[in-house]
Amino acid sequence: MGLNPEKLRKDFPILDTKVKGRPIIYMDSACQTLRPIQVINKINEYYNEYPVCGDRSQHKLGKRVDEEIAKARKIFRKFFNAKHSEEFIFTKNTTESINIIANALKFKPGDAVLCSDKEHNSNLLQWQIKKDIKHNIFEFGNIEDFKSKLTKNTRLVSVVHTSNMDGTSNPIKEMIKIAHDNESLVLIDGAQSAPHREINLKKLDADFFACSGHKMLGPSGTGLLFGKKEQLENLNPFLVGGGTVEESTYTTHHWEPLPNRIEPGLQNYAGIIGLGEAVHYLDKIRLKNIQKHEANLNKKATDALGDVVDLISKDQERAGIFSFNIKNLTPHNIAIMLDNSANIMIRSGAHCVHSWFNKHNMTGSARASFYFYNTEEEIDIFIEEIKKLRKHLT
Amino acid sequence: MICIIAFVVFAVMAIFSANYRPLAAEAFDCVFRKMTFRKCKTRLDERIKSKITGKLMGHTPKGAAFVFKRFEILSWIFVIVTIVSLAYSGYSTYNYIQYGNCYGPEVTGGFCIYNALEGEKFTELQKKIEGETILPDADDDPAIGLEDAKVTMIEFGCYSCPHTREAQQIVREVVSQYKDRIKFVFRDFPIEQIYGDAFLHAEAANCALEQDMFWEMHELIFTEQEVCGEEVHPEDHIEDAAKRIGLNMKEFKKCMKEHRYKEEIEKDFNDGLKAGVSGTPTFFINGRRIIGPKPIKAFQKIIDEELEKAGEI
Ligand SMILES: Cc1ncc(COP(=O)(O)O)c(C=O)c1O
Asked: How many Cβ atoms from other residues are within 10 Å of residue A109's Cβ?
């Protein structure tokens, strides 16, 4: 059974409202998705009904928070098909998740990290600034190059699953297998894959997996770090404090078990609970359906505009991402014009993948990113507006 | 280029609303540092250009293309227009401080309009007098002050016009301040179109002049302007006034009856028209015009300048 965007759109209050007198055409979901009413209500529920500490207080409201958090963790476990729910650490975004690994994983001097050449700054800078390890780069999607860059010193492969810049994906299942054969650990940046395709962590066998809640219907400033239990247990203490220890004296401490020991201080409870609701929502409509719907929309746009614009990638599979340039117009020109002419909201710039654009001597691209609530009619308007720009301004 | 206007516009708006402060700061940056094109940031001018183009694209793609392709030149034009209009605002502010209005000494709100071309009474101010304007002289009209003064202030006034009356207080002050250095001349500009008794009043003043009582009659008519016409018949009022200032009534009545000064008054009126007078009061200070009852500062400024020019200060 496919999905019915018209029906699902009713869950998104913002799609019912008008901005400057017309409905919005939101095509910036790779940055943040819109939020359904269920998630908004769930966040409100926390603040209205049990706005208190989790994991400490023995009173009824405190217990209610614990229950809701446990429920959310279970939802994540099921959604990602992980072994244990305590393998999910709450963070504020993908960026923080990757930073935790970069700082807490035990490296020894001479170790190397291997990344692709299409990493988001969130999976580049950590490695660039680390003094005692090598930062190697392979060509995105190129298994042979990947193999050739993998060495005995490669302690970690930290690689993006789906690129936010052009929507193409790395063959990560194969890469994980090869990396494991090489005794390297693997961290997947799943910011753009978790919201758009099924992730089966047991099958993938990734050691770490990072994603952002706000890119998958969740509250802003929420993220997840998945780590295999034994890997998380093996991390160095990095961010520490309240909630991470069972006990302490002036000179000693005793760590809490997972996941608490990696979640210092009071947490964004409303965010976590809201994210649980968001993931539950996604689970109900099934990621397979979402993936198919996005592919249809992207194909429609590509068929109509393939010759009109310069696509960043001509790859058949580009999830919901349509990243392009138009001759003589800057990406920002395009984005601002679409916003003003038809309320079409897209992103423009380097999408935090400056390194790749610099290597290819480009300033950036305009990027429309579709999600399950986008309709074919919206794609038609998008196509028409792009054609107008191309016809009249170039 | 657009940055300059943006800066000026946002800076002005920022004074009134904090919302515009970041934009003003950005425009400042854009003007003075020529922002580098960072990929995650758009230049302000590009943003404005795209925004305008985008908005137009929704209505007229051709218009959008026109703006997009000629944005630089259009923004130059805009900058020039902005600067010119700013200069005007500056000039108006200056006038406001100097003369109490935004336009300078020549214009006012309080003014009895003489409409030379249309029958309608209160249409727009018109100055379409045929031929060149000829600055008026003192002629042989009643004057106060120094006979051969270097500065002559001529007033074209109408006895029935409330604005002329309003100006008398200022005239009195000016005359008393400068009486030994300037010559003040009153010339008639009766606006009969509006005030039926205007001509009669002018004649009365002239007939009083014959008996050396011009200024007495002049003052009295203005002082009693409101009484006249409303409660008393104008002719009766004039006679009564003449009696009160002690004129030889027989002579006065004869003078009035003969309309002895009709031509004199008409000459004043025509000289006024030729000089471009379109209503009362209009003053000429050595040919420099002040229209309407202005704050005394406006008169002092021009008189002082003229005296200085003549080497009198
Ligand atoms: C591929 C990828 N990695 C990492 C990130 C960083 O995500 P966040 O800003 O939520 O930490 C993004 C966000 O755009 C992304 O697309």
From this structure: 8
Domain stops at, among B53, B73, B99: B99
Which pLDDT does position B128 carry in this prediction? 45
- In terms of domains, do B54 and B164 share one? no
Give the best residue of A343, A359, A387, A392 to mutate against chain B (max B CB count within 10 A): A392
Query: What's the CATH code of the domain at B251?
Result: 3.40.30.10
- What CA–CA distance (Å, rounded) separates A269 from A213? 13
Sign of CA dihedral B268, B274, B276, B279: positive
Residue B108 domain flag: no
Identity of the residue in A363, A389, A392 whose CB atom sits nearest the CB atom of B39: A363
Concatenated DSSP letters of B253-288 = HHHHHHTTTHHHHHHHHHHHHHTT--EESEEEETTE
My answer on whether B84 and B218 are in the same domain is no
- Could you tell me if residue B259 is inside a domain? yes
| Single-letter amino acid, residue B208 | A
What are the structure tokens assigned to A49, written together?
A: 């009904």
Answer whether B70 touches A (CB < 8 Å).
no
Q: Which domain holds residue B34?
A: 2-99
Does B51 contact chain A (CB < 8 Å)? yes
Does B59 share its domain with B147? no
Q: Is A343 touching B (CB cutoff 8 A)?
A: no
Does residue B39 register a pLDDT over 70? no
State whether B159 and B293 are in the same domain: yes
Report the separation in Å between the CA atom of A322 and the middle of ligand 1, taken as the mean of its atom positions: 17
pLDDT at position A340: 94
A248 contact B CB<8A = no
Domain boundary among B72, B99, B126: B99
- Relative to the CA of A96, which ligand 1 atom is closest? 11
A17 CB-near residues (< 8 Å, 6+ apart): A23, A24
Name the average pLDDT for chain A: 96
Kindly state the tokens that stand for A352: 């935090």
In a domain, B106, yes or no: no
Mean pLDDT (whole number) for A181-201: 98
**ipTM > 0.95 for the complex:** no
> If you count DSSP H runs as helices and E runs as strands, how many of each does chain A have, helices first?
15, 17
Q: Are B12 and B71 part of one and the same domain?
A: yes
- Best mutation target among B53, B55, B59 (most A Cβ atoms within 10 Å) is B53
- Please tell me the distance in Å from A237's CA to the nearest CA on chain B: 34
Phi, psi of B136 (to 5 degrees): -80, 160
Whether A189 is in the pocket of ligand 1, judged by its Cβ within 6 Å, is: yes
Radius of gyration of chain A from its Cα atoms, rounded to whole angstroms: 22
Where are the alpha helices (H) located in chain B, listed in sequence order?
2-16, 21-32, 44-57, 61-69, 71-99, 162-178, 198-210, 214-223, 234-244, 249-258, 262-274, 296-309
Closest CA–CA distance from residue B24 to any residue of chain A (Å): 20
Contact check, Cβ <8 Å, A337/B46: no
* Number of independent structural domains in chain B: 2
- Percent of chain A predicted with pLDDT > 90: 97
Measure A163 CA to nearest chain B CA, in Å: 18
My answer on whether B132 and B278 are in the same domain is yes
Contact by Cβ (8 Å): B134, B260: no
pLDDT tens digits, one per residue of B263-306: 999 999 988 888 888 888 999 999 898 888 888 888 998 999 99
Lowest mean pLDDT among A220-224, B114-118, B274-278: B114-118
Is the C-beta atom of A212 inside 6 A of ligand 1?
yes
Residue A385 with chain B: CB contacts under 8 Å: 57
Is B109 a member of any domain?
Answer: no
Q: Which domains does chain A have, with CATH numbers?
A: 5-30+286-392 (3.90.1150.10), 39-284 (3.40.640.10)
Size of interface A-B (CB pairs under 8 A): 66
Is there a single domain that holds both residue B282 and residue B193? yes
Same domain, B192 and B239: yes
- Listed in sequence order, the residues at least 6 apart from A108 whose beta carbon sits closer than 8 Å to its beta carbon are A155
